[in-house]
């Protein structure tokens, strides 16, 4: 279990090593490396998701410590349902590195449907087991545009510390 200690409260995530072994290991390694500490939930869209893990507190893309992209495991049978955690990526289905999002709604349109650029989907690799109240607080914050990004919380939501337990 990985716990994200944020300035809004704690979010505990159970990783699914059985269905998304490489993606869960990737997330755990970033957590063990301390990569997520000091990063923001930089994109918040109520009714959709809250995204974090890749931007520093001053909204700079965090590059130091970032590893190579991982292979997309979205064809694992897991769905982007409320409370699940998935990897963010670019249009390239195999471009996920460190950024992740927590679904705050059932987002079936993000699920894997085919092994092509249109259907790969977004890999679910875990779920929130404690702290959905914190996620729900985050999803309701006021957002705006900042430094070329939209849906940025007006007040910073910072991952201050990460703890790992078995």
Automatic annotation (TrEMBL):
Its EC number is 5.2.1.8. It comes from the Bacteria. Keywords: Cytoplasm, Isomerase, Rotamase. InterPro entries: Cyclophilin-like_dom_sf (IPR029000), Cyclophilin-type_PPIase (IPR024936), Cyclophilin-type_PPIase_CS (IPR020892), Cyclophilin-type_PPIase_dom (IPR002130), E_coli_cyclophilin_A-like (IPR044665). Residues 1-164 form the PPIase cyclophilin-type domain. PROSITE patterns: CSA_PPIASE_1, CSA_PPIASE_2. GO terms for biological process: protein folding. It catalyses: [protein]-peptidylproline (omega=180) = [protein]-peptidylproline (omega=0). GO terms for molecular function: peptidyl-prolyl cis-trans isomerase activity. The keyword Aminoacyl-tRNA synthetase does not apply. Gene3D superfamilies: Cyclophilin-like. It is an enzyme of class 5 (isomerase). It is found in: Cytoplasm. GO terms for cellular component: cytoplasm. Transmembrane segments: none annotated. PPIases accelerate the folding of proteins. It catalyzes the cis-trans isomerization of proline imidic peptide bonds in oligopeptides. Belongs to the cyclophilin-type PPIase family. This is Peptidyl-prolyl cis-trans isomerase.
